[in-house]
Design brief:
homodimer, about 230 residues, alpha+beta, Arc Repressor Mutant, subunit A, Nonspecific Lipid-transfer Protein, Chain A, 2 domains, five-stranded mixed β-sheet, two-stranded antiparallel ribbon, 10 helices, 7 strands, globular, DNA-binding
Chain lengths: ~230, ~230
DNA sequence: CAGTATCCCTTATGATACTG
DNA sequence: CAGTATCATAAGGGATACTG
């Protein structure tokens, strides 16, 4: 743990914990419903397992979460103190949505995009049978170019290998564009109209697809008005 | 700057900035009204000037604050993006107030206590003449044992040397106790009744003194109920 | 699945001194 | 007042391999 601030101010004391790299992202994963070690890892692919392990221990010691082992199953559960971090994480996300500028290319991780999408599937909007959505990001790294989302019976599975089932709708888009749609910076309809995002498959499925996903929780955040141009 | 998270998630992007040691405390100082480099330093006594300088630059680049130089006077001012960090800093302070346990001895910095108090003087409650409040923390480091607060004409000056003026009221208390009063964990009246905090001076000033200070902004935060004891 | 164990290495930070 | 310059250290963190 890094050196304490030596201030009694509760902001400083809280930041001694929350300051540390990855910590609040681990909390974000837990707030999003991650419960198992490898769940969490999927949302934090660039975090080493040893560091995740350490963070989980620190958060446990801090009283933010609890490690439960029941029948060989390990579960991490937020305590009341941990649950009260939700407004903080959300406020930070809102702030980031409003004030972080352009994303860098390195920020555009298709794995995380699919992982986030799979958590926001509106299963009630889906056809009543198994549905496979393919994603192709022509500009992405070849190894992360093709993805499949298998939607069935309230489950959503992310695959980076062909799952074998036929694809019902194929979504093709530049990665940056797809992220922009996901984050609410561009609407599905605008992205489709411009031709940046293309859908292939039966017309009724193509029409329905946008409704299968509720967007990122931050998509609806109002953006700051750009500095108003002076009226002439 | 430490390595980016490589996530497009706005929480991650925001934390790339806010994550870094001291950063949010610098913002806290700005939100509390600090405007000049050395103002900020007083609220961040353990931060080296070079690091403060670097943080100010990073925050400027991030669009959180603006450096203004007018007539040789340098001023740091929060931008709209910076001002929108207020709810985050406050939420973190509230969380810290509720969930951080006992403070360590190293957290009890009399300098910061006095610095915080001087910002929360209710000048309208003061006698209409210059008032000097002395503080003595018998258990503190000898060099930080005695402090003076000179209150006059809407100004409040913190001194760690005898300012020369006669002391109107002398407050003597264990440092931890005084911090507890300040943070709202113990009321003035309880602390005085128990004898932990003692006031010396004319009775009317002793009676009036608690009203001279509005407590820390977090003093009024409701504490979580302790886990209820099981009824027998 | 749920983590530990290593190991190296960058780099963030603290401390101090100094300048316009 | 408002910072810069310099330096040594610790250690936080990334990568990888391995275990029950």
């Amino acid at each position: 743990m890094s050196a304490p601030y030596r201030q009694f101010c509760p902001v400083a004391k809280a930041m001694e914990l929350l300051d540390e790299r990855w910590t609040l992202l681990v909390v974000r994963e837990l707030l999003s419903g991650g419960r198992h070690f490898n769940d969490l890892r999927r949302g934090l692919p660039r975090m080493s397992p040893s560091l995740l392990s350490r963070r989980l221990q620190q958060l446990t010691r801090a009283g933010v979460l609890e490690r439960r082992e029941e029948g060989g199953q390990v579960e991490y559960v937020l305590t009341p103190a941990g649950a009260e971090l939700r407004p903080i994480v959300e406020a930070i996300g809102v702030w980031g949505t409003r004030w972080i500028g352009e994303l860098g290319d390195a920020d555009l991780d298709p794995k995380l995009l699919l992982w986030d999408m799979h958590r926001h599937v509106d299963h009630d909007a889906l056809p009543p049978r198994r549905t496979v959505v393919g994603f192709r990001f022509p500009d992405a790294d070849p190894r992360a170019r093709d993805w499949w989302l298998v939607l069935h019976g309230g489950e959503a599975d992310v695959c980076d290998d062909d799952p074998g089932h036929p694809v019902d709708v194929l979504v093709t888009a530049p990665l940056r564009r797809m992220v922009a749609v996901w984050m609410g910076d561009v609407s599905w309809s605008a992205a489709l109209r411009s031709g940046d995002v293309r859908l292939e498959g039966p017309p009724e499925l193509r029409r329905a697809l946008p409704a299968w996903f509720t967007l990122s929780s931050f998509a609806a955040v109002p953006r700051p008005r750009p500095v108003a141009a002076q009226a002439p």
